[in-house]
Amino acid sequence: MIDIPPNSDLPGIEALRGIVGSIMTVGLILAVLALLIAAIVWAIGATSSNPHLASRGKTGVLVAVIAAIVCGASVTLVNFAWGVGQGI
Q1: What are the boundaries of each domain within the chain?
Q2: Smallest Cα–Cα separation from 71: which of 37, 33, 39, 26?
Q3: Model pTM score
Q4: Phi (first) and psi of residue 42, to 5 degrees
Q5: pLDDT tens digits for 49-76?
Q6: Sign of CA dihedral 74, 80, 86, 88
Q7: Which residues contact residue 27 at a Cβ distance below 8 angstroms, ignoring those fewer than 6 apart?
Q8: Which helix (H) or strand (E) holds 35?
Q9: Residue 9: what pLDDT?
Q10: Left, alpha or beta for 5 (phi > 0: left; psi -120 to 50: alpha)?
């Protein structure tokens, strides 16, 4: 049986973790911005009796929420996949 754990002693790993964390933060900030814009579009479409615009706003809200979920859960998802892969 071969057991090879990941090596976290490589040079630059801490910098890479910082970069990935920064990208996650930017992704979450952009998801919040997208959510706000989509909610405004939805509200404008609903108040102006424009069903197409309201529908686009609803879709934007859904996409922004899913993007925030993926950004927030990305580490957990990768760790879950790693655990599944280790069990095979």
Answers
A1: 26-87
A2: 26
A3: 0.79
A4: -60, -45
A5: 999 999 999 999 999 999 999 999 999 9
A6: negative
A7: 67, 71
A8: helix 13-47
A9: 85
A10: beta
* 13-47 and 51-87 helices, crossing angle to 10°: 150
What are the residues whose beta carbons fall under 8 Å from the beta carbon of 35, sequence distance 6 or more? 60, 61, 64, 65, 68
On average, the pLDDT of the chain sits at 93
What sign for the dihedral angle of Cα 54, 60, 66, 71?
negative
- Please state, in angstroms and rounded to a whole number, the distance separating the CA atoms of residues 85 and 88: 5
CA distance 84 to 86: 5
Lookup: tokens for 33: 């911005």
Residue 86 pLDDT > 90: no
Question: Which amino acid, residue 80?
Answer: F
